[in-house]
UniProtKB/TrEMBL annotation:
Family: Belongs to the uracil-DNA glycosylase (UDG) superfamily. Type 4 (UDGa) family.
Protein name: Type-4 uracil-DNA glycosylase
Uracil-DNA glycosylase-like domain: residues covered: 41-191
GO process annotations (BP): DNA repair
Keywords annotated in UniProt: 4Fe-4S, DNA damage, DNA repair, Hydrolase, Iron, Iron-sulfur, Metal-binding
Source organism of the structure: Halobellus rubicundus
Enzyme Commission numbers on file: 3.2.2.27
Keyword Repeat appears in the UniProt entry: no
Length: 212
């Protein structure tokens, strides 16, 4: 475990302690420190080819200490299974690691405060492909407004720190719960991402990123 005394990614904040790709302590966001019961770090292999990026933990994630374990997580698990993947095959993380009060969207300052943690995690995992789950992570990584329903399945480049990652834009799994027409979009996007990364049913271990 390291006390962060001035590394670029964590900005020299003495409240931050990291443990590999995990954040063991951080008190940068007063509202989130007050509303969280724990820091929710990413889960999954630390050398995963595919990384899914959500917005922030909700109540279930805050209680269990793991991203996407509520209803959205069940939809994600189902789409992964459909694509020939198990949850344990991929890494799942969030833009912000602490639950915002009343499940509000994370604020821009909170996203910025947590950005270094994400940079460090992605740098360590070095995935073949990222998948942004919903508007907040898509706009956070691409630094532009994103119409996720229209752009779902698109492969773009996202700059995180000093690296660029091939990224598939996706609707959030929760969107399928409010609007049944988004289900097909979501499932197709996840299958496409598995295929592009060369994991899952169709991949045969061979990434097809060169085609994009
Ligand atoms: N929604 C997210 O964006 N992240 C989670 O971890 C759970 C729900």
């Amino acid at each position: 475990m390291t006390q962060d005394g001035g590394g670029d990614a964590d900005g020299g904040d003495a409240t931050v302690r990291t443990d590999g790709p995990d954040v063991a302590a951080c008190e940068r966001c007063p509202d989130l420190v007050a509303s969280r019961s724990r820091i929710v770090n990413g889960v999954g292999p630390d050398d995963a080819e595919l990384v899914f990026l959500g917005e922030a933990p909700g109540a279930n994630e805050d209680a269990e200490g793991e991203p996407f374990v509520g209803r959205s997580g069940s939809v994600l698990d189902e789409a992964l299974r459909d694509a020939g993947l198990a949850r344990a095959d991929v890494r799942i993380t969030n833009c912000v690691r602490c639950r915002p009060p009343e499940n509000r969207d994370p604020r821009s300052g909170e996203l910025a405060n947590c950005r270094g943690h994400l940079e460090r995690e992605l740098d360590a995992v070095d995935p073949e492909l990222l998948v942004t789950l919903g508007k907040v992570p898509s706009e956070h990584l691409l630094d532009r407004s994103v119409a996720v329903t229209n752009e779902a399945g698109d492969v773009v480049d996202a700059r995180v720190g000093d690296r660029s990652y091939r990224t598939v834009i996706s609707v959030h799994p929760a969107a399928t719960l409010y609007d049944g027409s988004q289900r097909e979009t979501f499932f197709e996007t996840i299958a496409r991402a598995a295929d592009i990364a060369g994991v899952g049913e169709g991949g045969g271990g061979q990434s097809s990123l060169g085609e994009f």
